[in-house]
Amino acid sequence: MRALLYLLLLFSVLNDAHARAVSYADSWMVMQENSHMGSSVHLSYSPTWQYSLGLRTERMNEDAGKDDIWGQYFQVNYLAKRWNQKESQGNLFLLSGLGAAHREGDGDWDPAAFVGIEADWETRHLYFLYENRLNWADTIDQSFSQKFRAGFAPWLADYDSIHPWIILQLDHHPELEDNVVLTPLVRLYTPLWLTEFGVSHKGDVLFNWTYQF
Amino acid sequence: MKHFTYTLATLLMLSTAAHAETVSMELNGLVCAFCAKGIEKNFQKNAAVESVNVNLESKCATVTTKEGATLDDKTITDIVTSAGYNLVKINRGKSC
Predict the structure, then answer these.
(1) ipTM of the predicted assembly exceeds 0.85
(2) B69 min Cα distance to partner chain A (Å)
(3) Contact at 8 Å (CB) between A169 and A195?
């Protein structure tokens, strides 16, 4: 287990993977994400279906001329509300992280934290998501970012089969020069794993994967 | 008469022999296989359960118990609720 954690930290980079913020009760989830925003690895445990505890390590890309920001956090996600209907499910998650951050090349770590919300609604055919994050890292970073997603399933699959989705993601990061980025992506998932890949309109590759066990 | 009694006793024993139970349940919120994994895992943890089958098309899960084992309504409700889903209806003796 320790070796796995070290390996995950070595490949760490930024941001949120797009499986749910909380997995099923008594489960572990590992998420790794890569995009124009940076990269991250997030390992979490969900004691119940309503919250998860995890460790996140990330690198946030900055504009040219600025050093990237590294962050290490203890993260708590909470499912504040779920709406279960016959043909749909909606969720509202509260996200939070507490840890430390520093600029690449600078040895000093500052205390850092983030909070955010994630709201999603989906049927077997349609999927919508909104997520935001407010970052604070003392003298290093105070920033806000948000993400929108809309997607559809080109065909429906049986429970144990691979489920395909076509999704359009819009990232808004006001502090960056390219503060709006559009990324069409393909999502594939089974009951155990999920992966996403796409290319933004700026030519940046997005690749995410999640495994729950 | 003795032969008839033995035959009747054998038939009675066979009719009460342990058998597996099939229970299906209609659920709300069952739209995503990655998310519904919890239903499957929660039921598999119960000692009475032999197998679980989730059907996204019919918004339903079917549980087959082990020989001689049963799942009462309260247990089923608790398992579904602790997986984060809403139980609509339980149907005993049939699959989804």
Answers:
(1) no
(2) 24
(3) no
DSSP state for residue B6 in the 8-state scheme: H
List the pLDDT tens digit at each of the 96 positions of chain B.
888 777 776 666 655 557 889 999 999 999 998 888 999 999 999 999 999 999 999 999 999 999 999 999 999 999 999 999 999 999 999 998
Q: What's this model's pTM, rounded to 2 decimal places?
A: 0.86
Instruction: Determine the residue type at B24.
Output: S
Determine the residue among B27, B35, B95 to mutate to test chain A binding: the one whose Cβ has the most chain A Cβ atoms within 10 Å: B35
Taking the C-alpha atoms of residue A98 and residue A135, their distance in angstroms, rounded to an integer, is 10
Cβ-in-10-Å burial (0-12, 13-18, 19+) of A204 comes to middle
Residues of B in contact with A24 (CB under 8 A): 35, 37-38, 41-42, 83-84
Residues on chain A touching B28 (C-beta within 8 angstroms):
84-86
Which residue of chain B has the CA closest to A187?
B34
What integer pLDDT is reported at residue A47 of this predicted model? 96
By the 10 Å C-beta count (0-12 exposed, 13-18 middle, 19+ buried), A90 is classed as middle
Q: Which residues of B touch A194 (CB under 8 A)?
A: 34
